[in-house]
Amino acid sequence: MPSRLVTATVLGCSTLAASFNAAPLTSTTPARATACMTAPDVIAKKSAVVDEVVATMEKSALMFAVRSEGIKPNDMNMMRQKFPEEVTIRCVKNTLMKRASDKVEKFQGGEDMYEYSNYWFFVPEEHLRVTVDTWNDWVKETKVEENEIIGGVFEGERLDPKGIIAVTKLPTKQELMQNTAIMLKKMPQKLASALNQAGAQRIAKVTKQAAGQKLVQAVKQVEGKLE
Questions:
Q1: What is the DSSP letter of 8?
Q2: pLDDT at residue 140 in the model
Q3: 65 forms bridges with which residues in the sheet?
Q4: Which CATH architecture group holds 3-10+34-170?
Q5: DSSP track, the chain
Q6: Average pLDDT over residues 169-181
Q7: Average pLDDT, the chain
Q8: What is the mean pLDDT of residues 170-192?
Q9: CB 38 within 8 A of CB 19
């Protein structure tokens, strides 16, 4: 578990303990009522996390997971520095991930991954390749296979690790737009060249025909004089 999550848990436990110390149980304060006082806060915090994850999903094209067990907080903090700022990495409870993905259609279908404790990577389209390659390179460098990508979801499709690598090789929308712009730019040039060639061939044909007609007329005139 990341250090900030551990800190949050400790703080939560401390706050709960302080509340009990500040308001000791009495005959007029039922134990059940005291215990239920924090329930709305817990529900609100969980709802806030779900809303944050949904907002992140909507801005992402791919999400994939790695097991958080065995990854030291310092190592993850170091790796965070290597990814683009737009890439989000979170350790989210599986129940909250399920609630969030139910609200975002393109990330539905990965329910079988909502087991154990995972780091979830939320990646925008333009950073797919660099994010996956960076993580896989680190796994190869450390030789810790347990840290490999276990799977992900892309456009409503559940992907295995090989599928994720295949997705990173697809051209992005920006790359497609650039290629289309280049093609459109070249089209007028090719079209003009084709028209010029067609025009030159037509002129040559007409010239040849005209020359042939003149030759026929000249021959006829010579034949007339010989007669």
A1: H
A2: 96
A3: 120, 151
A4: 2-Layer Sandwich (3.30)
A5: --HHHHHHHHHHHHHHHHHHHHS---TTS-HHHHHHTTHHHHHHHHHHHHHHHHHHHHT-SEEEEEE-TT--HHHHHHHHTTS-TT-EEE---HHHHHHHHTT-GGG-S-GGG-SS-EEEEEE-GGGHHHHHHHHHHHHHHHT-GGGSEEEEEETTEEE-HHHHHHHHTSPPHHHHHHHHHHHHHHHHHHHHHHHHHHHHHHHHHHHHHHHHHHHHHHHHHHHHHH-
A6: 62
A7: 76
A8: 60
A9: yes
**Whole-number Å distance between alpha carbons of 87 and 13:** 31
What's the pLDDT score for residue 194?
A: 63
Report the pLDDT averaged over residues 180-209.
60
Locate tokens 């329910």: which residue? 111
Q: DSSP letters of 45-57?
A: HHHHHHHHHHHHH
Q: How far, in Å, CA of 64 to CA of 110, rounded?
A: 9
Query: Is-above-0.85 flag for pTM?
Result: no
CA 107-109-111 angle, to 5 degrees, is: 105
The identity of residue 33, as a single letter, is A
User: How far separated are the first and last CA of the chain, in Å rounded?
Assistant: 115
User: 111 Cβ partners below 8 Å, 6+ apart?
Assistant: 98, 101
Find out whether 122 and 87 touch, Cβ atoms under 8 Å: yes
